[in-house]
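Protocol step 6 of 9: fold each sequence in the batch and record its C-alpha cells directly after the sequence line. For illustration, a two-sequence batch is reproduced in full.

Sequence one:
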Amino acid sequence: MQRVDFDKFTIEDGLKLYEKDLFTLGKIANEIREKYHGRKTFFNINRHINPSNICKDVCKFCAFSAHRKNPNPYTLSIEECVEIAKEAHKKGAKEVHIVSAHNPEVGYGYYMNIVKEIKKELPDIHVKAFTAAEINFFSELSGKSYDEVLDDMIEAGVDSMPGGGAEIFDEEVRNKICKGKVSSENWLKIHELWHKRGKKSNATMLFGHIENRAHRIDHMLRLRRLQEKTGGFNAFIPLVYQTKNNYLNVREFLTGVEILKTVAVSRIILDNIPHIKAYWPTFTLNLALVAQEFGADDIDGTIQKESIQSSAGAASKNGLDMEELIFQIKDAGFIPVERDSLYNELRVYK
C-alpha cells in the first residue's frame, strides 16, 4: 500500500477505506500487522476485578451497573478484592485489571486502598486500573485535580491504565449514550497527563450501537493525534457493542464483515499505536482469531472472570483456559506469545 499522508488524512479518506472490499482491506491491514509482529498473536494471563456495580451515571449502553435491568447491586470489600487477586496470582495471573462502576457511597480512599492492599500482598503483580471515566469521577468525588488523582494512583501502585470510558468521542452521540460521563476532551486530557508521567495506557472505542462509520474514523483520528504527541498508547481495542440488558434498544448485531473492516481500518489509521486488540469477550473467540488476519495481533487474555461485558451478553463470565487459548491460536495459524501488560514477551509457543 502506498504510504498514507496522515497530516492531510480526512474522515472522507477513512470512509473510502471502508468502501474497499473486505479482502483488499484485510490485505492492506495484514501487511502492517506482519511488518510489526509477523505471525505472532499476543495474550496475557490476567484477572478482571470489578469492585462495585453501583453507579451514579446512567449510560444507556451499560448492562453492568445496578438498575432496573440489573437489580443486584454489590460492593466488594477491600479484603475481598485482595483475596481475588491472591487467588488469581496462585493460578498464574500476572495482571489484575481493576475497573469499577462510579460508586459515590464508598469514598475516594476505597479505590486507592484496593490497589495499595493488593500491592502490599502481591508487589510483583501488574495493576492495570481505573479508566479515564473513573478518574474524572474520582476528581469530582474528592475535589482533587486530575493531576492529583493520577499522582495518588501512582503512589498507590497503579502500573498502567486501561482504555475504557472512551466509548465514541463524537459529542452528539456521547450525549445520547453516556450523558454526564467524562467528556471526550477530558478523556484525552487524562491519558495525555498519564503519558507525561512516563506511564502507558490503552485506548478503546465502543462501536456497533447508534454511531456511524464517520464517528469511528473521527474517534481513531483523535487517538492518532494524541499518540503522535505522547507515544503513550500500547494498544487500541475496538469493543463490539453487546446488545442485551440495556436501554439503547439496538436490535441488530453488527455483521462479521463490518467488525473485520473496522479492525482493518483501525490498523491502517492507527499505525502509530503498536497493537490492535481483538478483545475476544466482545468479538467471540472465533471472530477474534479471524481478526488476526485483518490487522489485529492480540486477543487479550485468560481473564478468569469478567462481569461488565458478560452482563450485556458476552461469553466471558468465567474466562478462558490458557491451554485452550494457546491451542486455538496455533490452530488458526498464528504463533501464541504470552506477554506481560506492557507487551514484553514472556514465552513464545512455537
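Sequence two, same batch, same settings:
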Amino acid sequence: MRFLHTADWHIGKTLNEFSLLEDQQAVFAQIEQIAQREQVDAVVVAGDLYDRSIPSEAAVKELNGMLRRLNLTDHFPVLAISGNHDSATRLSTGADWFARSSFYLNTDLASAFTPVTIKDTQFFLLPFFGIQAVRNYFHDERIKTVNDAMERIVAEMQKAFLTDKHHVLVAHFFAAGSQRTADSETLIEVGGLSAVATSLLAPFDYVALGHLHNRNALNEECIKYSGSPLKFSVSEARQEKGVWLVDTDPFAVQWLPLEPLHDITLLKASFKELMANAKGYPATDFYDIELTDRERIPDVLNKLRTVFPKIVSLHRTHQAQQLALNRQKHRVTESPLDLLADFYSQTLGGKLSPAQYRWAEEAFTEATKEEQ
C-alpha cells in the first residue's frame, strides 16, 4: 500500500503573535493535492494536530475542516494520534464513530495494541504517553524508563502481528540519535533517559514519527520524522518542509517538499541598507533581522516595520559581541551588581534607578544566604 506520513500540524500556532492559519490552509491544500496525485491509500498524522491543549475556536474549525475534507470529501482513510501539545480527552471526542468513515484517531494507550489494517499493512497508533500510564496498563512498577516502557509496548504489539502483513508504528516521541534545534519540542525525560532507543523499533517495517520539526533529525532508513509542514520558528528558517510518501511493497520512501505561502527570511545588514533594499523582499514574508549598526537608532523596530511588516525577531550583531566582551573583561574585577548595572545599560540604554539597585542588592544578598 501507499500512504503519506505527516505530523506536527500545530493548527492554531502563531509566530510571534502573527496568525499562521492562512499559511496552514495553504500548506494543507498542497498535502491534499499530493494525496490525490499520488493516489495514496491513507494519510498519517503523527501527533500534535493542535498547537495547544485548549485550542481556539478558529483552530478547531480549521482542523475539523481539514480532516473532514480528507476523510469525507476525498475519501482517504486518516490515521492520527494525539501528541504532547494535544489534549487527548478533547481530541478524542467523537473517535468512537469516526472509524465508521475510516478516520482512525487514537488518544488512548490501551487502544494502541489493536491494529488498524488497510490492505497489506497493520498500523499501530501509539499516542504520546507518560511512563505512569504504561505502568498502570501493565500493572508493573518495574517500568522505570521510557525504554522500559517501549520494550513492553512493542512486545505487546507484536502479539497482534500477522505474518502476511507489513507493520507500521505511528508514534510521537524523541528517538535515540535524533538531533534537536534550539526550538525543538520538549523531550520525553523520565528516569534519567530522554530518548527511545531505535533498536527497540526494529520489529516494524516503518515507524512514522512526530515530535521533532526537522525531518533530518533522525537518519534511519525505516524510522523517520516527517517534521512540521510549516516553519514555526526562526531556527527552522533554513529547513525544507514536506511529507514522506511511503510504499510498503516493494518498500520505498520518497520526500515531497511543500512550499510556504509566506517564508521566514534571515536578513543581516545595516538599517540604511535594509531600508534601501526593502523592495527586493516580499513584504508579506516573516523576517528575522540582525542589525549591524553600532549606534542607537530611535524607534528602529517601528521604522523597519514600515517596509518589513512581519518582523518576528530583531537583534544586533555588535550588541551581542560587546556584551560578551564586557562579561569576559569584568568577570573578576566587577561585583555582580556592577555587572547587572552594565548589562542593564547595554540592553536598555539607561541606568538602574536607586530603587532598582536596592531591590537587586537585597535579592543578591538573599540568594547568597541560600547558597551558603
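Proceed to step 7 once all outputs are recorded. Observation for sequence two: DSSP finds eleven helices and 16 strands in the chain.
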